[in-house]
Amino acid sequence: MTDTILSTPAFMGVPPRIALVGNPNCGKTALFNALTGARQKVANYPGVTVERKIGEFLSPAGTRVQIVDLPGTYSLRARSPDEEVTRDVVLGRFQHEAPPDVMVCVADATNLRLHLRLVLELKKLGRPIILALNMMDVAEARGCRVDAAALSAALGVPVVPTVAVRRTGVVGLLNQIDRSMGAMAADLAPSPGGSPNGSPCGWSEPSAHDLRAYHREVESILAAALRDAGKPSLATRRIDAALLHPAIGLPFLFLVLFLMFQAVFAWAAVPMDMIDKGLGWVQAAAGAALPDGLLKSLLTDGIIAGVGSVVIFLPQILVLFFFILMLESTGYMARAAFLLDRLMGGVGLHGRAFIPLLSSFACAVPGIMAARTIENRADRLATIMIAPLMTCSARLPVYTLIIAAFVPDRTVAGGMIGLQGLVMFTLYAAGILSALAAAFVLKRTIFKGAREPLLMELPSYRLPSPRDMLLGLLERARIFLARAGTVIFAIMILLWFLGSFPAAPDGASGPAIDHSFAGMLGHALAPLLAPIGFTWQIAIALVPGMAAREVAVAALGTVYALSETGDALSGSLAGVLAADWSLPTALSLLAWFVFAPQCVSTLSVVKRETNSWFWMLVMIAYMTALAYGAAFVTFRVSSALLGG
Ligand SMILES: Nc1nc2c(ncn2[C@@H]2O[C@H](COP(=O)(O)OP(=O)(O)OP(=O)(O)O)[C@@H](O)[C@H]2O)c(=O)[nH]1
Ligand SMILES: [Mg+2]
What InterPro entries does this protein map onto (predicted)? Predict the structure, then answer.
């Protein structure tokens, strides 16, 4: 059989392609990761995967197989952009790609009544199908018993039980994939004319009548194969009785979010201090070991001061992601969406907008992409336009740096609440409230439309696996450090160059950076930013800050290191800022960062997802106006109050 696969014309040159198709949250991506060793995002709410992801594996028969992970969908009657991706890939309409050779339908064994309907819809396409009966561990625990052989006979497709998160059944699935490809190749050999690789013609959206017919067919299949339906999870019901309770639900959610910001400060303090000391030591050692000159300046002022000022925030990023990963993997995320549905509706947003917005706390790019799960275009655009107002993790270093420099580290409310954490919480709240306000305005002006109800499956609660949490955090650390080591590193060298050349003329007074290219740029921009209280050093830092938010911090590190007239940077960057800026300037810069248009990657993903330059330009314009206005008001009001 192996040989037939390898020598079959259909597979010559191109590897055979397999697609994972199924309802949302049934474990497709977990299975994809188990098969390919990839680390695609797996989380416990519907709508995690919103684009197609491609991987590869070697089948037991030695065939290199390409596998496509797809967004979850309930039917091929796609309604939202993520579902359209799945429909188009399955039907072979996606970017002129041939349809997959074999489809692996993934179904949640505990919810077959819902999941089998899609299997029937796919079967109608007349192409090879394998059913992966996933979540068998959960089914077993709930006393739900499915007879896989009877199910296979009733459905007419091979069935393989799996537990994707534990890789159970993966070998069985691989063998079945080989068998299905072998059978396909054997079918092909005698009649090369009837290519199953051609696009399946004759697909039409199932009508209401078809859907009813599928429903009846599912019932008769279940009658044959479901031995015991089992009981729904009691734990999930009990937890929901408390956490979705009208009086407890919202306060609990706010408590969780509040704790998250307190923890970002409290838990991260010690490791950050250690990194700070370590960096100081490295900087001093490098300074002492190297002779004065360009190399020493590049290393200590450019690289260590710049990149180091970003790396120090790693612990905070990890604490933030620890909370986000917990919310996502336990299943609480989908509950939070329901709890906030009323609030979202109040400003005209769709309930589904909650997950894109919460994801934007990590980064606006995946947040904006998650808006693909929203069917209505006006609702989707409104969500995309406000997503960058949520405070992304790259802004965390900027906030922390300024807070550390200007907000005293003490507790308020009788020692219960850290003041720095409270200020951080306020900044996040400012972002959230302004996003809601912007949505309110947008939905009443540009994106008018009736509000649609939120329909979303609530997943069962799950205990996050410590291993997955650890891997998830390591992945975040890797991404963060890789950025510090590549983008930020490169920009710092460039900035160091621009800040060091041309050198100051003989006999000039003041720091050399005043006479450099960067200094010229800063001084040129300064009049524009003077009304909002920014110094020329801030003006320099804002420009590379467009590449990535945290670069602004690194840039301040380098600019101030080069501005020092004495030896190397004395004391921490926060200390230098505290001495150089007035409090109104610091507050004004915080206000700027709450609203200012995001990094280049965010803007380009807005362009891609809306498929228009127009919305990207609108975003830049409205956010810049907001940022300038907010910084102006903050600077003027605080200057007046503080008599500055
Ligand atoms: N207990 C158990 N949990 C599973 C199994 N497979 C997946 N999960 C969990 O189910 C949740 C959903 O898994 P995903 O792989 O993200 O599901 P998906 O089908 O890709 O979801 P979408 O991308 O939203 O369509 C995650 O919390 C997984 O850890 C399984 O076999 N057993
Ligand atoms: Mg997925």
Answer: Fe2_transport_prot_B_C (IPR011640), FeoB_GTPase (IPR050860), G_FEOB_dom (IPR030389), Gate_dom (IPR011642), GTP-bd (IPR006073), P-loop_NTPase (IPR027417)
Q: 58 is written with which tokens?
A: 């070697």
Give this complex's ipTM.
Answer: 0.99
Question: What sign results for the dihedral spanned by CA atoms 88, 92, 97, 100?
Answer: positive
Hey, how many other C-beta atoms are within 10 angstroms of the C-beta on 409? 11
Dihedral pair phi/psi, residue 189, rounded to 5°: -50, -55
Q: Which of 492, 626, 499, 475 is nearest to 548 (CA)?
A: 492
Give me ligand 1 centre to Cα 371, in Å. 20
pTM for this model (two decimals)? 0.86
The token duo for 234 is 């009691």
237: Cβ contacts below 8 Å, ≥ 6 apart: none
Distances (CA, A) of 537 to 44, 98, 554, 560, 580: 45, 55, 12, 7, 10
Task: Write out pLDDT tens, residues 58-79.
Answer: 999 999 999 999 999 999 999 8
Measure the CA–CA gap between 90 and 31, rounded to whole angstroms.
18
- Closest ligand to 82 CA? 1
**Residue list, ligand 1 pocket, CB within 6 Å:** 22, 24-30, 42-44, 46-49, 71-72, 134-135, 137-138, 163-165, 329, 462
The rounded Å distance from CA 82 to ligand 2 centre is: 11
122-171 pLDDT tens trace: 999 989 999 999 999 999 999 999 999 999 999 999 999 999 999 999 99
Atom 7 of ligand 1, residue of closest alpha carbon: 27
Ligand nearest to the CA of 48: 1
The residue whose CA is least distant from atom 30 of ligand 1 is 135
* Nearest ligand 1 atom, CA 168: 31
Please name each of the domains of the chain with its CATH number: 2-232 (3.40.50.300)
